[in-house]
Specification:
- The chain has about 120 residues and is mostly beta strands.
- The N and C termini lie far apart (about 40 Å).
- The mean pLDDT is about 95.
- The protein contains no helices and 11 strands.
Length: about 120
């Protein structure tokens, strides 16, 4: 079991940037592929990005590709989501999770509180 705590969200203007962090606690953080998901008001939770346990393979939703970058620092047990050129459509609560599957899009851990990202127009 891995405990996850998201942080770094906030209120930004369209075109701005935020860097989200997901701090993990567990036996061996580097053994897990990690992903970011988001849920906007009235919408289903959706996949945003993921990366392999080694950090060598990344996947992105088409809606964020070329704007968001996922990375990890295994020495700090932390995964990041650098969000640039933010749009109002990016407004959502962002969550991280352990992921599996061919495209690392299947979350298998418990959902935490997430971190709110609000982008104003």
């Amino acid at each position: 079991q891995v405990q996850l705590v998201e942080s770094g969200g906030g209120l930004v203007q369209a075109g701005g940037s935020l860097r989200l962090s997901c701090a993990a606690s567990g036996r061996t953080f580097s053994s897990y592929a990690m992903g970011w998901f988001r849920q906007a008001p009235g919408k289903e939770r959706e996949f945003v990005a993921a990366l392999s346990w080694s950090g060598g393979t990344r996947y992105y939703a088409d809606s964020v590709k070329d704007r968001f970058t996922i990375s990890r620092d295994n020495t700090k047990n932390t995964v990041y989501l650098q969000m640039n050129s933010l749009k109002p459509e990016d407004t959502a609560v962002y969550y991280c999770n352990v992921v599996i599957g061919a495209a690392l899009g299947e979350p298998i851990g418990n959902w935490g509180q997430g971190t709110q990202v609000t982008v104003s127009s």
